[in-house]
Amino acid sequence: MSTNKVQKQDVLQAVVVASFFHKNFWPAADGDSACLMPLVNRPLLHYTLDMLESSGIVDVVVFCSSGSADRIRDSVQLATGARRLNVVYTTSDTCRSFGDVLRHLDSCALIRNDFVLLWGNVVGRLPLLPLVKRFKSLRESGDRGAVMTIIYQRSGDPDAASVGDQTIVLAADTGRVLFHNRARGKINLPLELVLDSTVDIRRDLVDTNVVICSTAVPPLFADNFDFQTKDDFVKGLLINEEILNSTLYAHVVDGDGYAGEVYDWPSYQRVTRDVLHRWTYPQVPEVVDKYSLRYGNVYIGENLKLALTCNLGNDTVVGSDSKFGSSTSINNAIIGKNCRIGNNVRIENSYIFNDVTIMDGSVIRFSVIGDNSVIKENSHISDSCILGGGVVIEPNTDLNQIRILSSDSTKKSKKLSAKAYAYNAEDDSDSDDDQDVKGLMFRKRSWSINSCSSSDDDTASVAASIPDDTCMFYSEVVDSLIRGFEDHVHCDNLILEINSSRYAYNINYREANFQVIRAMLTLNSKAELEALNQVRYYTQLQSKLDYFLPVLRNYIKSMDSCEDCLSAIEDIAKGEELLNTVIVKVIHHLYNMNILSEESILKWHEKEEDTQFAKTVREKANKLIEWLKDAEEETDSDDNDDSS
């Protein structure tokens, strides 16, 4: 009898928080049931349960709101991994935060032993059982006050929003968390932190939001009502460590697993890509569902009807029972089950949920189309549009960067058609969101220029117009330069960062020259540019160029690199009016800084161009060219006088 009791107590538990307290996926999914949103045509929650089952978890407590409990319960019954789990559901309509969930668990007395705590949006494979055993051993033999091990993942992904947003200081020998700060830029570390022991200062870690907890964690939340988030808990314990007698530890996942949390659309893109590239194996489409894998990470479902001229590009998934018309092109996209795609349709970098109809001639780029939606003929939907379920878009409609609902549920929406209402967050003064809802990352930041396009009229997304690696490199350079200028980072360190990115993305030297100059000229956001006049814009730009002089000298030091520099300036000026008005001043200033040579400027000016813009720019530079030639003649004359 006592043996059975001990075995019961030793059963490893997990708590899955299946209700999200945010609207990051709205209107495609609400916070209460966002865990059921499809990722590669499979509910998010199924990935989480499969990971737990493969890790040796036996008992799972699923927390959800009462309104979504039936839907979540029905979905869990269909999950492959859940069939071998003992799943218990607990619901509440009064919980408004992560902290409330822990207080609810404490009141229900559902936790018997150390447990794994995570959200229902974690995808991956983690060796949880050894980590839990290590945590138990730590508390039994080393630190009885240990209450939590936070699992981080090392990341070199520039799209990971958490990278660089948090600083973690760990004891080098034990992995104990000594300091945690979520802030960009400079931070102040207590001096005694680095004097008393050897520490690791980490800014390369992404929080997986998987933690291993002792039974003391729910009571700590219950005793401290100001703990609303996990970050509140971490901060509170670090500040009041002696009072609460509790310590935190960290484990960094490197080569021993993978975990990705899907908490907004950019992370949704990132984890989707990782699934397609098989970092999550065995949680890949052809293993967990009925797909066949083809070259280029193309996953084909069952019972498809593909026209002979339909083209499926790399990193594409097409769900079962779907139909595709002739001359249709699908690239880097996820197509749900039972979809109807017409003729001459283009879908790129988008996510099409189940039972969607897209009629002839339509174009979908960097957007999400919710379940049971209909896109009628010749419609263009691009640049991070998010369409909720049941939306109907009328023919010849152009949409970009907008959220569309099927009904005016917010009473703050603009009617586009009978089943399409455009939500305007600026008009929603009653919104309780503390932060903007991020859309798909069709561009790294708020671009103000048509900088990646060769056409004057084409304002499509940056990622759609240049290679992914080049776009990644450019984005990292922009981030490095912004941080470097704001925090006064030494330019030698910035050069090291830029070179590291160049090698990581295999960018050749001339392309690097071009992209570095582009980055320097596009450090202002769109809002910042709108607030500047010509004089203030040039003054700010001049100060930035002066600050980055060592960076310029490192990359622009030959005739070829001068040509790259001038090409980048002209390319940016094509899409940015303020730069266009001062382009000659910029070239002259770079000449005075000994970055651009006289020969390179004259060669650039003499180059024959077909476009009207290029001709106009060279006409603007005529006075500068005359001045350079006159200065050259005077120099030659002085040399002749000296020789005589």
Notable traits:
34 strands; globular; ten-stranded mixed beta sheet; disordered N terminus; alpha/beta
Describe the structure.
The chain is of the alpha/beta class. The chain is 38% helix and 20% strand. The protein contains 24 helices and 34 strands. The strands form six sheets. It has a ten-stranded mixed β-sheet with strand order 13-14-17-20-23-26-29-32-34-33, with no helix packed on it. A seven-stranded mixed β-sheet has the order 3-2-1-4-10-6-11, sandwiched between helices. Helix 13 packs antiparallel against helix 14 (491-504), helix 13 crosses helix 15 (509-520) and helix 19 (559-573) packs across helix 22. The longest helix has 22 residues, at 622-643.
Write the layout of secondary structure elements.
Layout: H1 2-10, E1 13-17, H2 44-54, E2 59-64, H3 69-78, E3 86-91, H4 98-108, E4 115-119, E5 122-125, H5 128-141, E6 146-154, E7 167-171, E8 177-181, H6 191-195, E9 199-202, E10 205-213, H7 217-223, H8 230-239, H9 241-244, E11 247-253, E12 258-261, H10 265-276, H11 285-288, E13 292-294, E14 298-300, E15 305-306, E16 311-312, E17 316-318, E18 323-324, E19 329-331, E20 334-335, E21 340-341, E22 346-348, E23 351-352, E24 357-358, E25 363-365, E26 368-369, E27 374-375, E28 380-382, E29 386-387, E30 392-393, E31 398-400, E32 403-405, E33 413-417, E34 420-423, H12 462-465, H13 468-487, H14 491-504, H15 509-520, H16 526-530, H17 534-547, H18 549-555, H19 559-573, H20 577-581, H21 583-592, H22 598-606, H23 612-620, H24 622-643
Parallel strand pairs: 1-2, 1-4, 2-3, 6-11, 14-17, 15-18, 16-19, 17-20, 18-21, 19-22, 20-23, 21-24, 22-25, 23-26, 24-27, 25-28, 26-29, 27-30, 28-31, 29-32
Antiparallel strand pairs: 4-10, 5-12, 6-10, 7-8, 7-9, 13-14, 32-34, 33-34
Helix pairs in contact: 4-7, 13-14, 13-15, 14-18, 15-19, 19-22
